[in-house]
Amino acid sequence: MRTIIIDDDKASVDTLTKKLKKFRDIELCGSTNTCSGGVHLAADTNPEVIFLDVELPDLSGLEFLMQLDKVVRGWCQVVMYTGHPGFMLPAFRLNAFDYLMKPVDDRELKSVITRLREKRDKEESPLNMAAKSSMHKDKLLLYTSTSDFRLVHIQNICTFQYNHDIRQWEVIIAGMPEPLRMKRNTKCDAILDIDDRFVQVSQKFIINIDYLVEVSDNTCLFYPPFEKIKHVKVGRLYRKKLTEKFNAI
User: Fold this and answer.
1) Is the dihedral of CA 36, 37, 42, 43 positive or negative?
2) Mean pLDDT of the chain
3) pTM
4) How far is 108 from 121, CA to CA, in rounded Å?
5) Residues 94-125: pLDDT tens digits?
6) SS3 state at 56
7) Four-residue CA torsion sign, 66, 69, 70, 71
8) Averaging pLDDT over each range in 13-17, 66-70, 194-198, 237-241, which range is the top one?
């Protein structure tokens, strides 16, 4: 099971890493010390298991848990592990798989891993397997130059913006320092047809509504890792449709 750790305490990460290496079916894909780093790591590795601390420097683990369906795709379970028992109830209300106390007890960890295996095996239905085999359908081809291109996961796209200088649509993607360009002849309607999550908010911008937190002062504000994007304005003619779509989520 592909596994990542999100914890800002290095000693705890090192200890848990050593314990997890004893399980043959656990594939450790990395660790990070912030929720924002966890968003990037999860997008890159698509983990099946996340060991998540509660108290982190940027956001709480509970806030990360609330955004889990926007961060990962497919089967994924979160095991909260912390030195604070007071967060157990809200963690389970947010569908955490289990709650381990630090320092992690070997027998409790073994029990958690065993139940994770059982849950995964039970939920790996033919329908889920078919969905995995069609993952390539959830990708989009974008150009990094006039001749080079890159496939990106649609779920990692936050916004499309029209660049009037070059007369092309560009895409802002998680983990990419610069926007990528679409084909020169790409039209607005073609972008909207890619996925139901894409909603036009002005003549210049199309957003992935799954990342939209709120509209404040006519400006779209987004979940991490796109929280620094604060230039997407909502056009008057598009506000009603955006509100209806947002309320329907």
Assistant:
1) positive
2) 86
3) 0.53
4) 20
5) 889 999 999 999 999 999 999 999 888 887 64
6) coil
7) positive
8) 13-17
CA distance 52 to 27: 16
Residues in Cβ contact with 30 at an 8 Å cutoff, skipping those fewer than 6 apart: 4, 5, 41, 45
Strands (DSSP E) along the chain, which ranges? Answer: 2-6, 27-32, 49-52, 77-82, 98-101, 139-143, 149-153, 157-163, 168-173, 180-181, 198-200, 205-208, 212-216, 219-222
Would you call 60 exposed, middle or buried from its count of C-beta atoms within 10 A (0-12, 13-18, 19+)?
Answer: middle
| Cα first-last separation, the chain | 30
Which amino acid is located at 225 in the chain?
P
User: Are residues 4 and 38 in contact, defined by beta-carbon separation less than 8 angstroms?
Assistant: yes
Q: Give residue-wise pLDDT tens across range 144-155.
A: 555 566 778 888
Phi, psi of 103 (to 5 degrees): -70, 145
- CA dist 105 and 187 (Å) reads 56
In whole angstroms, give the CA distance from residue 249 to residue 48.
25
CA distance 8 to 16: 13
Residue 186 in tokens = 């790409």
What tokens appear for 35 in the block? 């929720």
CB atoms within 10 A of CB 229: 17
